[in-house]
Write a structure and sequence with these properties.
Shape: elongated
Strand content: under 5%
Order of helices and strands: HHHHH
Oligomer: single chain
Number of helices: 5
Radius of gyration: 19 Å
Mean pLDDT: 75
Low-confidence stretches: 20-35, 97-121
Length: 185
């Protein structure tokens, strides 16, 4: 009779170790004795939010590219894309909420983001078949969900809760993208 493995999986151990290492690296040590410790936490949260928004914007671009390449998937992808857009707004936080037309920096206007009207570079073309495109999009959602789960270990309280929620939603999206529509669970 084969032995049944007990304890955490290899993936969960590696994810935990990576999260702990990331938390140590993100908190770091500073030699500035006069610095306000709260300022470092605010800067860390801002950087983490900006990175999360950039990742979410890239995911939105993948949804848009998939819909453009496979218009027959538009109805299926629309609610998932809308949820991802809502995640982007939530991750940007209240500081990014500005009146329409207001000038000023926002979390999505970092130096690494393309200028308005400039198409963003795509990392890979959309697969030729709809099934392969859905699988690729599910893999992207799953990878981002796993990365967010690791990142939340070093995130401040409220941001950690938000990242956990968005990561869980991404895992559900990955499932829905690969599930057969109309099939019984």
């Amino acid at each position: 009779m084969p032995a049944v493995p007990r304890g955490p999986s290899r993936r969960s151990v590696l994810a935990g170790a990576a999260g702990a290492a990331g938390a140590v690296l993100l908190t770091g040590c500073t030699g500035e004795s006069g610095a306000n410790p709260g300022d470092n936490g605010i800067a860390l949260e801002r950087r983490m939010r900006e990175g999360a928004v950039r990742d979410t914007e890239r995911l939105l671009e993948r949804y848009d590219a998939t819909t453009a390449a496979h218009p027959d998937l538009a109805g299926r992808l629309a609610p998932l894309r809308a949820a991802v857009a809502a995640h982007s707004a939530a991750l940007a936080g209240p500081a990014a909420a500005q009146p329409p037309g207001a000038a000023g920096p926002s979390a999505s206007s970092s130096g690494s983001a393309p200028a308005a009207g400039t198409p963003a570079p795509r990392s890979a073309p959309v697969p030729a078949t709809a099934a392969e495109a859905l699988t690729e999009l599910a893999d992207t959602e799953r990878s981002l969900s796993e990365a967010r789960t690791i990142t939340l270990a070093g995130a401040p309280g409220e941001l950690a809760r938000l990242l956990a929620s968005v990561a869980a939603c991404g895992a559900v999206h990955a499932y829905l993208l690969t599930a057969t529509p109309g099939a019984a669970p």
